[in-house]
Amino acid sequence: MQEIIDEIVHNYFEDSFYEIESVPFGLTNLTKILILNDQKYVIRNYNRHTKNVESIKFEAQITSCLSKQNLSFVVPIFINTIVDEQFVHLSDGTLGAIVSFVEGSVPEITSIKQATDFGSIVGEVSSALSQCNVDCKFEGVPFTEFYSLHPLADYYAVASFIKSPPFEISQTALNFYKEMISFVEQNKLELMELPKQLVHHDVLIYNLLSKENKIHGVLDFDFTSLDISFMEFAISLNHVIQLTNGSLEMTEAFIKGYSQFRKFTYQEMNQLQLLTQIYHIAVLHIYIGQHYSGNNIEQNFNYILSQFQSRNDWLNKHRSSIKILLENFMN
Fold it and tell me: Long-range pairs for 238-244 at CB < 8 Å and ≥24 separation?
């Protein structure tokens, strides 16, 4: 690891004296805080299975576009190498980059105001991304294409994993997983007429930074792609429900905050549960890909699968309440 970090740093700075600190994020890529000349940066060695030249260029264009808008938050910006590139090809065949460091701490969602502020940031991120037109052949992989999100988790790899799980998964949970995949595949065509745009896919509190009780930074654009616009709302709403133990009051606050920047239609609203199902399947498939690349996914996989069941049950139970809340803030 040290040799890789050295190689990245030497492509960016002539000064070779630096310090490295750990970060609480960066499960997909090797990510560290770099301190050089009293300046902090984030240094990354990208996972060879999930990041290539086109996807890095795509991410760099997105963050550049956002940085030029008059937003309430900042995003990490790619720093240029000594030869004026936004990333570096490393000797082991992987890619590396250094991006700007954003100060702050992970926000909480424990009050109505915090839930509203979170909804507002999600809406603002979605609105800002809708204004970005990237000049890149690569447009990311939408979560609706959940067999393409990881090169080691195609249809056959997922089927093999489900047929013979490499660790203990309850039969009830496994049956639910299979049933949901089948249901989504049968109903996915319903989504094709919904509006599409760039979607972050991971606007969770762990990818946000707060300063002076105000959300200040948005991180981690690794999973950004052209996808169903309302997917952003569905993913972050799921996060609020998870963090607040299904509080309808907090859910309403989130929707109110989101609606300050984005509205939605009946057609989008009616697909909330299907989009939520697709989100969980997508995350599970990414974990399956990580398993086949050699990572231990047992705890995370079972956690997401359990959350998937709980969220599906919650949405079924509160279908009419959610419909009323959404109608109060729709177009």
Answer: 238/276, 238/279, 238/280, 238/311, 239/204, 239/205, 240/109, 240/115, 240/118, 240/119, 241/311, 241/314, 242/307, 242/311, 243/109, 243/205, 244/109, 244/115
Q: Please give the distance of CA 253 from its chain centroid, rounded to a whole number.
A: 22
Among 168, 214, 217, 222, smallest CA distance to 51 is for: 222
Q: Which residues lie across from 33 on neighbouring strands? A: 21, 42
d(CA 262, CA 185): 28
128/67 Cα distance (integer angstroms) = 10
* pLDDT per position as a tens digit, 139-177: 999 999 999 999 999 999 999 999 999 999 999 999 999
Find, among 284, 259, 260, 281, the residue nearest to 269 by Cα: 259
> Residue 117: pLDDT above 90?
yes
CA separation, residue 297 to residues 64, 220, 256, 289, 317 (Å): 33, 20, 35, 10, 30
pLDDT value, residue 331: 66
Residue type, 82: I
